[in-house]
Amino acid sequence: MKHKTTTAITLIAVSALMALAGCGGSSGSGSGGSTASSGTPVKGGDLVIARTADSQSMNNTTVFDNESIWVFEQIFQTLYTVTPNGKGVQPELATSYKVSADKKTYTFTLRSGVKFSTGQPMTSADVKFSLDQSRAAAKGWGYIDTAIKSVAAPTPSTVVVNLKYPWAPLLADLSLFSNGIVPANYGGKTETQFYNAPVGTGPFKWDYWHKGSALKLVANPNYWVKGEPYLNSVTWTDVPSDNTRELQLKGGQAQIDEFPAWSTVSSLKTTPNVTMNLFNSTRTDYLAFNETSKPFQDVHVRRAISLAINRAALVKAVLFGNGKPANSVFPPQVPYYQAATQGLQYNLAEAKAEMAKSSVPKGFSTTILVSSGFSDDLTIATVLQSELKPLGINLKIQQLDPNTANTNQQNLKYDMTLTYWTMDIPDPDELATFAVDPNSGARSFFTAYDNPTVVKDTHDAEQTLATSARQDLYNTIQSDAAADAFMAFLYYSPYAYATTSNVHGFYVTPLGNYHLENVWMSK
Amino acid sequence: MGRTGFVVQRLLLLVPVAVGVTIIVFFMVHLIPGDPAATILGIHATPKAIALLHKQWGLNRPLVSQYWLFIDRLFHGNLGQSLYYGGPVSSLIWSHLPPTLWLLAYAVVLTVLISVPLAVLAASKRDGVRDHVVRAVPLVGLGMPQFWLGFLLIYGFAISLRIFPVSGYGAGFTGHLQSMFLPGLTVAFALTPVVIRSLRASMINVLQAEYIVTARSKGVPPHRLFLRHVLRNAVIPAVTVLAINIGFLIGATVIIEQVFAIPGIGQLMIDSIFQRDFPVVQGVTLVFGVMVVLVNLLADLAYAALDPRVRFDR
């Protein structure tokens, strides 16, 4: 069977995005909406986003932190990009593709008329160079492209991707920012020089970066979508204090406050001239058990703890009600998420029964590792302390500075700890591999969880192209992982962004990306 | 020994101080558990990626040889490369230094502008009502946590009255003057009570000196008496107090910079500690150490300028 997508889909997708941008309507504070978008977009305006931390680097092939990713996504674009609902892909720099009968050769047609911000046209040579660089990034995102055998550029407008084996997540992988298109040979610069002032095909181009202070992009006059972007410039300022970001918003110094504290969300909803947005996200918070530490290798202990956690109460205490209890290792915004997976929900009687079956029926003493300075994590730990008491579990909270906590977690030097994941691609493969395969990625989220059946299903799903067969595999993975309780799935939380009410069209996908070419500011 | 010799001697003393600071900081930073690769890779930290980063940064070498490399580079004027950003540490520090210097200078100027008149007011009528008021009220500033005071000032002057920007460093000289006023004032509030107390006490002492009695009997007018004779002689202990407190303040700027979102070296220090960006932590601490030494040197030079009897013997 051959797949073919056309530019028509692009148009549908773009109009869907615009419709979505408009659906925030009157309130703008609803979950999953975007900022109010009444009226016709006007040109101009300098947007300031007050954010929690600085970027690290603009090298899209090696950087993992979101504060870098959200910036260079305005500069670099990919062949395919994530749909607004975060569950699929739509064409961006490519317009269509064809796949061979053996599912191992993908031929992409590139969009015509696309230029870099320097004015130079984008060709297949640029695409080949970009994908080759990304694939080779051993310290970075290279693993995402492991299925790719080679990339060829037979004509200036055609790119051929040859795979080692049929690979279901290919388009999702190509939509990842690490596969963003840069000029071939970095436009004659060295890699370091290039990423100090990156060049791409996106709506904004580089202006300056004062490290630890502010980063500014300006509108790209060569952007291939006529009339966009609306804004003259976007500046991200580094404002680590929650209070100061909120004050900057109220004082008109910033137009977007990234991640206001949960405790302030309800008051921001009623603050004049401020729109409080809660966008659906793929963030899932987990309680991780270290299976190399006794007694967590015992499935009954893990199940007992999972069953003793009142997730609805956690959502109330930590998120002030702005979230949902989790039932699966996957969040609802991920394709193949199974709502029917019950997971282990709060049931104290069952928890006690599990505990009775365990190697420590009378309970035990243990610790929970928490990063200092994260009040949400401390709240969760304190709630858990009281919730695990009825099982005879004496929980001690161990607070360490974030870096030490992180290192101890990665070295499996903990009993229990808190962790979370947000999706990078609109496909569950990356999450599943990191979460359950102890040999690839991060030792099953640093829990040492190893269930050979789940691992096998995960890799089978990568090479299963039929949607229903893939769904079956992911259903099994989700229910097996829940039954094994290798982590307790705690809750799903939205992305909180407060904006001034003159900001329109600001929308964050469940993967956390935002497209600032759709944003405009009324006078 | 003349002034130049004194300055040269003190500047030479900077070298052992700086080396001492580097030894303490280098080994303390490496004693804290934690790994910069853990920050950069996060949950994507595979053992392979961690090993690659360690090799790239030279963190797989013995600690002593890492220190030696650091010192060797330092004597060539190179503070190394930031692990987090990848660029040279010196340019990071250079770009973060001006806001901190602005903050310190602004705070000192405001402190002097507030405390000198108040101290004169208090000392001119010892144990009177205004003396008690001047001694008691500024203590509130000392007792209040600085971050809280900072937020109060923002609410009052930036959100309600909209006279000053909420936070940030501003652009251009007038921009800085405007943006840095509230942070400078916050720091000054903590400094003034200490300076007022010491200045008032020494002024009361000076007022009882025989040369003041003589001056009075010669009919020197009161304002001239206070400015030329009392203040000038009384100010030396206050300068010492101010200098010592600026030393402490350099540490306190960390909090003020956080509250007012000022991109200074205090902020850089905090970020780099959390990221375990060892070269930056070492570089910033070195700068802090040098700053404390220089402030004390300036205080010593100020004595001589204020009192010709001070000689640079020791």
Quick structural gist:
The complex is a heterodimer of chains A (523) and B (314). With 523 residues, chain A is an alpha+beta fold. Chain A is built from 16 helices and 19 strands.
Describe, in plain words, how this protein is organized in 3D.
The complex is a heterodimer of chains A (523) and B (314). With 523 residues, chain A is an alpha+beta fold. Helix content of chain A is 29%, strand content 23%. Chain A has helices spanning 7-22, 66-72, 124-135, 170-174, 191-196, 242-250, 265-269, 299-308, 311-319, 348-357, 375-387, 402-410, 429-436, 443-446, 452-462, 467-484, and strands spanning 46-51, 80-82, 89-91, 94-99, 105-110, 148-155, 158-163, 204-210, 214-219, 233-238, 256-258, 274-289, 324-325, 364-371, 393-400, 416-421, 487-500, 503-504, 520-521. In chain A, the strands form four sheets. In chain A, strands 1, 8, 9, 10, 11, 12, 13, 14, 15, 16 and 17 form an eleven-stranded mixed beta sheet that branches. Chain B has 314 residues and is mainly alpha-helical. Chain B is 78% helix and 0% strand. The longest helix of chain B is centred in the C-terminal third of the chain and has 38 residues, at 222-259. Chains A and B meet through helix 6 and helix 12 of A and helix 2, helix 3, helix 5, helix 8 and helix 13 of B.
Shape of chain B: globular
- The percentage helix of chain B is over 70%
What is Rg of chain B?
24 Å
Q: How far is it from the N-terminal to the C-terminal residue of chain A, by CA?
A: 52 Å
Structural class of chain A: alpha+beta
Mean pLDDT of chain B: 86
| Shape verdict of chain A | globular
Using the 3D structure, state the CATH architecture of the largest domain in chain B: Orthogonal Bundle
Average pLDDT of chain A, to the nearest integer? 90
Q: Work out the helicity level of chain A.
A: 25-40%
What is the CA-based Rg of chain A, rounded?
23 Å
| Derived structural class of chain B | mainly alpha
- Just give the CATH class of the largest domain in chain B: Mainly Alpha
Sheet of most strands of chain B = none
